[in-house]
Every structure is written in C-alpha cells, then in structure tokens.
Batch of 2 targets.
Target 1
Amino acid sequence: MSATSSRLRWIPRLTLALLAGPVLAGVAGTVLPGLGWLPALGGHRLSLEPWRDLIATPGLLRSAALSISTGCGATLLAFATVLAILCACDGTRALGLVRRLLSPLLAVPHAAAAFGLAFLVSPSGWIARLISPWPTGWERPPDLLTVNDPWGLALTTGLVLKEVPFLLLMTLAALPQADAARSRTVALTLGYGRTAAWIKCILPRVYPQIRLPLYAVLAFSMSNVEVAMILGPNTPATLAVRLTGWMRDPDLTNWFRAAAGATLQLALVLSAIGIWRLGEKLAARLGRSWIFAGGRGRSDLPLRLIGFGLAGLATVPIITGLAGLAAWSLAGTWRFPDALPTAWSLNTWMRAAPDLAAAFAESLKIAAASVALALALVLASLESGDRNRERATGAAMHLLYLPLIVPQVAFLFGLQIAGILLRLEGTLAGVTAAHLIFVLPYIYLSLVDPWASLDPRYATAAASLGASTNRIFWTVKLPLLLTPVLTAAAVGFAVSIGLYLPTLLIGGGRVSTLTTEAVALAAGGDRRLIGTWGLLQMLAPFVGFALALALPALTWRNRRGMQVHP
Amino acid sequence: MTGEGLFFDDVTIGQGGNTLLTLSTRVTPGEICTIMGPSGSGKSTLLALVTGTIDRSFTVTGRILLNGRDLTGLPPQDRHVGMMFQDDILFPHLSVAGNLAFGLRPNVHGRAARQAAIDAALIDAGLEGYGDRDPATLSGGQRARIALMRVLLSEPGALLLDEPFSKLDATMRDQIRGFVFDHARANRLPTLLVTHDPGDAAATGGPVIEIGDSRT
C-alpha cells in the first residue's frame, strides 16, 4: 500500500503543474514581447515601443471601453438574473423545470448560441419575420443594427444568455452546502418573504462558493473572441477580437503590438476582478446593516414574478435561436417576411458534407484525446488523494480556475510562440495540449463532489475482504462512479468541441474544427451554411451527453440500486 | 368565539391513501402540549403543517386556527408561528447579535432600539456580552438559548418545538428544557412539543397526546 501511495503521490502536483504551468509561462511569454523582448523575432532589448504602437492604434480606447462595458455589463446582468431566478424559484417546484431547461444549454458552444441569437434578432431574423408585414409593414428586412451594434448590446445579450446557465448550475451545486432548505424554513417561520430569506440567509453562504465561477464569467465576458466576432461591433471591434487579428497577422511586427495589447487585456480583467472584490465587501457591509434592521420583505410578489419572467427569458431565446439554425440549414426558398421556408431542401447539408465530416473528425480526435488525458489525470489525482488522505486545498482550487480567469488571449499568445519554437504549432498534438488546459478544470470540478460523496464504507468493505487498493479502484469505485465519470467526460468533450481561440492560435489556422470553421463563416453571412455548421457544432456535445446517460442506464439496467434519479 | 390558543379542528394528514394521523385538540395560551410518537409517525409532518411548509404529497383535511385566525392556505411568513428545530440552525454567517436581530420584529425601529432589545434578550439568556461572538464558538446549550431568543424576538403567536432537546446531553437537557418551558409560559404562548423522549413529556406538566403506529 505504501509503495502504491508514493507512486501516485506526484500525480495531483503534475495535474496542477499541467494547468498552471502553461498559463503562467504563457503570460510571461505575452508580457515580455509586449516590452519588446522576443529573441526569436530579433527583440533582444526591453523597450516601450510596442506599447507606444498600441496606444497609437486608432480606436484603441473604444475597443478597450467596449471590452469593459460588455464584459462587466454581461456579468452583472447574468448574476442579477440568476439571483432573481433563485429568489423566485428556489424551494418551489418551478426550480426543477428551470434546471431541466437550462442544463442542456450549458453544453451549447458559445459560437452556436451566438449564431442562434443572431438568427433570432437580426433584421431578417425570426422576430422581424413574425412581426412583418403586419404590424410593422416591413416588406423587406428593416435597416436596423440589431446585431453588431456599435454599443455591443447584442454582444452583451449573447453573453448573458450563455453565462446564466453556467452561473445558475454552479449556484445550484453549492446550495446543499449552504443548508439552504432548513435556512429558508427558519426565515419563513420568522416571517420573512422568500426573496428576503434567500438574499439574507442563503446568498451570503453560497457566494464564497460561486466567487471563482463569477470571476471566470467576468474574465471570459471581457475577453472572449468568438461571441464578439459574431454579435459584437465591427467599427471598432472589441479589444480581444482586434488582438486576435494582430496575432494572426503575417506581418510579425504586429506581434509586439499584439503582446502589449494582450497585457492590457490582462490588466483590464484583473482590475475588473479587483473592483468586483471591493464591491463584494461593500455589499457585505450594506447587507449586514440591512439584516440587522430586520425588514421582512413580505410583499415580494412583483420581484418573484420578475424572476419567473427572467427564467423564461433566459431559456427561450437560445432554444428558438437553435431551432433557427436548424430551419436555415434545411431551408430551400425562404423569402422575407415568411416565418418558415416555403421549400425545404437537403442541398446545404449535401454541399457541406465533406467539409463537415473532415472538421467533425478533427474535432472528435482533439476532444477524445484531451478528455482521455484529463480524465486519467483527474482520476489518478482523486485516487491519490484517497490513498494519502489528502484533500485538495483552497490554493489548489484557485490554481484550478487559473486557465478560466486569466483571459485566453493573455496567455495563448505566449503559448503560440512556444508552440512555434517547439514545432507544435499547427499540429493536432499542440492543439490537444492546449485543449487539455481548459478541459482539465471542468472535468475536475464535475468529478470532485461525486467522488467525495461516495460512501467510504464500500471501499472499507472491499478492503476487509482482502481486495488490493488497485482492485478496489477498478472494480468498486470506478463502476460505482461510472455515471459521474461519464458525465465529467461529456462536460470535457463539450468544452473541447466549443473551444475557439486555443484551436485557432495554436492550430495556426491549419487545424480546422467545427468551431473554427463555423466562426470563420460569420463574416460571410451565408445563413444556410452557418445553419448547418452551427447546428452540427451544437449537436456534437449532445452526442457526448447522450452517451453519458445511455451507457450507465444500459450497464445497470438490472441494478435497481444504480438507477439515477436526476 | 373560537377562542384563544392553537386549535386543531378535526385535522387529518394522509399520504397515498393512508391516514397518517388525526388530531383534534386545543392548546391554550401558556400550555405545553406534547405529541409523542415513534419516528415516522408523522410528528414532524404535523409541525410542517402548522408552519405551512408541508410537502405537497400529503393530503390534509380540517383546519388549524391560531387565536381564532384560520391558518389554512396562509404562506409560512404570514402565520406568526415560531419554531425551534432539532438543530438550532443559527446562521453561521451572522454574529450572535446578528442572529437575534434577524428574529427581532422589524417594527422595532432604529439601531439603538434594536440593539437594546437584543442586549435585553442576551441578558435574559444569561449570555450578556456575547453579541459579537461567532455562533460556532458557543456551546450546545448556549446555542439553544440563542435560538429560542431569536424566535421569541419575532413575537410569535404560538411556539412549536421539534425535539429541540434531543441533541443535548442529559444535564444540559433539563436546564434548557426548563428555560424554554418557562419562557413559553411567561409569554403565554400555546406550545406544541413533539418528542419521543418520555422525560420531555413529563417535564411539561401539560397534556400528552400519543400518536401511533398507524403505518407498519
């Protein structure tokens, strides 16, 4: 036993090193070129030249401001929406419905969701068609800037819609630890309305557990590229979109400017997180005096109705938008303002099939490899934790969030250079390694709670029957945890399928996945083609989840004690 | 006049076609009525019915009146029924004083007035000067007294006790039991105690209702 434990002991550290190492190295590989130091490109001296170039870039201030306004706006709105939904629904049966509607949306890649929203709200989208020609009188698509608007409103909306499911599910996962049900009963019997009860008794205890996910949402919203390319403004685009353009520029002098810009992006995100942290402290202080005053907040029906309304608003647009993708992919003739195509056809699918198949195969290879590696590392880490009686510390959990909180552009640039130097750029291996950095945290987060809550008496019973620790792992723990392990794999699969920027930058444009190809179509505006790519991109993750549900059901069809009751 | 106190008017609780329990009784102000029964006999369900947090899978007939007011259909927050649980459920994110302030009625206005009411409650509980403490640092008996004070500061019309002494050790149990019962009588609260400890029932000096093993 001691021999096994010492053999596994290094695995958790290796896992964290694989996570944090590339991020930190990538940041260094971004900040230094931003200061002119990049020996491979002849930059041997530190200088502020890249920063001067950056500042002289026309529209830079506006790009940076857009990054702040859309990112912070989307995070605040998503958080407020989640609060309103939970205040209204938690402890009622409506919550189950909300959970069932929002969970699948988590698996939808950002790009597909953004395309869906664009198809819904664009001047020739479904909403415009439904209100045309009556009552608007529009015979042709109106000349309105509902997508790519210069203020980034469409972008903000898209981000909110995609982040609400994530935040809501993270909060729901934290509720049991906050003793939510009993706290609510106490508050209700003391005369508190449901909204006040939730905010005063449950939120303060849930918040520490959703703080890191919130920071991840803030960082992603401020610095994402694919949603901003599809829904965001063009004149100028957000900072991250422009940086991505420079990083892919064949003119290598632009790389120094890109590195400086990526450093600026990192600074913006870190400042925003710092300000959010101050806001937390202020809110806690105000909250304490609000609680002390003892107001019962009993007439909260209007607030709760808003919450129910928001629950609908958070689900319906994406679902209809995705239906829009399907409709366009099968559309033959579809004139404005017809609500549905007048002729259906498989032409687009036939035309795109060879490209779709090639990109799908590429996506599948990368996802399967990165998920398999991540799963092996995470399982070995958890098992090592059991054998050495070690639990992940708070610091380890923070490291886990590093790739999700450091903006992607801020470290992928450094990794791109490293990839070129190591001759990994443009290879499947390089892209897989980059995906591993993002897949690992999600697989770990999905597995850590189910793993910890497995009744330890099963292992004890097996050990007392003489089973070795290895045998217990393979024949007791792993089978008992089959469902969560497969679910975690499906989560990782969905993450990998949806990754855009790592694939683009490390792939150097030579690795074409469903996501890179779909996003590349955004500029062209061929709706039928976007519909097919978006739809396949969206459906791919669901194949993973379907398998994750079907396999255990099939394996355990004769085992009543193993049935899952979601 | 249906009168004062907590009146159970032909109440039956059923689930899936089976009758779980029936109850018809009046608990007068200051009286402590004990409901005895084995676990699974529906004692806690009865309390959930009074507080308005009963699960929808139960079918209920009859009415419950508190000081002449029909509680049927009222949301929990409008019932003014205070409850002490098996665990004290003090909020860990608030100080001891914060927990008491949470219970204190909102019509006590102003920081000074609220602080004074909380200080008085702390003295009453024999815990003067404990206001700034973290509830986690208190002993089981101290926590139970704070939990009772939190309920009393909300000035409920009735008090429900869901085996609140079962997790205390024997010497502490007598002391806290006396403390809770004295306060219930002094505040003239109709009080319903559910327990399976005969010692609890004996200490109330009030009526004892056995509810049985209607389920097997």
Note: Chain A touches chain B at residues 93, 179, 182-183, 185-194, 200-201, 204-205, 288, 291-296, 298 (CB under 8 Å).
Target 2
Amino acid sequence: MKILYFAWMRQRIGLSTEAVELPADVTTVDDLIDWLIGRGDGYAAAFEKRDVIRSAVNQDYVPFDHPIKDTDEIAFFPPVTGG
Amino acid sequence: MIRVQEEDFDIGAEIAALTEGKTAIGGVATFTGLVRDMAPVDGSDQPVSAMTLEHYPGMTEKKLAEIEAEANRRWPLDGSVIIHRYGRLEPGDLIVLVACASAHRQAAFDACQFLMDWLKTDAPFWKLEDTDAGGVWVETRATDDAAAARWNQTPESE
C-alpha cells in the first residue's frame, strides 16, 4: 500500500510517501492509524490530533471506518488551508 | 476549466479567454486571492515574508474538477475557471482565481462564492507562512467551515 503524508504530518514523520505491507488485521483506516502510531515517535506525533486529521483513499475523502486494501493509495493530512 | 500551477496568471487574459465568442454571457464574477504581508501567530499579527503552498497532486485536480461540475449543476453558467497556484509565493502574489460567467449576475456571484467557500474547506492545499518566528502552518478558521456549510442545503431549499 502507498501512503502519503502532507504538511506538518509529513514533517513529523519525516517522509512524504512510503510503501508498506499491511498486516492481516489492518482492515480500516482506523486500524492503519493505530498500526502506524506503533511504528515510532514521529508517527505518534503526527497522529496526536487524531480528531482533526483527514484521510483520503484513492484521492477521495473517507471516514476512518473506511475499509482499505493493499492496492489503495491512502493519504493523511491536516485540515486544508487553500484558497 | 481548472488549472493547478506554479506559475503566475493574468486575470485579464483569463476573463478574456472565458468570454471569447460567447455573447450569451451577461456578466462575469471573479474572486482573486493574494498573499497577505501579515498573519496572526499565537494571537498577534506577525509580518510574513513568504508563503509556501503544498498540495496533493492528482487529488487536487480531481477535487477541483468535481466542485466545478457541481457549480455548473447548481447554476446556469456559461463558463467557469478555477486557477490555484502552489510553491513559494511572496506578499502581493496571486494565489487563486475563480471566475464564473452567466447570463445574469446572481448566478455568477453565487457560483463564485460557492467555489471559493468550498476551496477553503475541501481542496487539498496547505499554507506554510515564513514569519520572524519561523515557518508556521496556517490554521483553519471556523468561519470558513460555516461559510462552506451553508451550501449544503440544495439551491431549491434556500
């Protein structure tokens, strides 16, 4: 699975994108966040404000209970500030 | 038409291209966003020397195209343009242009406002401002969410 991070989440994790192999018990966005947080302090800091973070699967906004699969492109980012 | 680009744009040229040959158009409403030289940081205004706009290539274009299509469903437009820049910008630089053309002004004004309100809350862009205190990520404003929420009603129910 391809994961992308933007803005201050990218800075805290130190990566803009990475490819990961999903463990079998990671089936939703929520599961993925829990699993990522366990990978290190940078991830924990990036997902600290879990309630404000937005997620997109294959470039569409999705809620955290959305199912995910290995072929998906998933992105995590802070609230958007364009315009 | 939507464009996501690093380079500057010419508002006059964009309006001319939007209306060229379309004599049914009675009005064009536009909004242009510029980089401000001051920004609130921890409650007080700080000078801003530059701004860097990050975006999500692919999703940005997809979302802009979707919302432009939605504006065209809601209002009788004869043309629309959304241009949003990314990269490093300085105070006074143009960030965004929204232009909507229609036979009459109300549809043009409303569609333009709808697109701007939506851009603020759903287009995947993030602004990093360079201030004396270092780089500061711009935070969302509750007023932007409220402005976007009013469009969730259908036009008929307004």
Note: Chain A has one domain: 2-77.
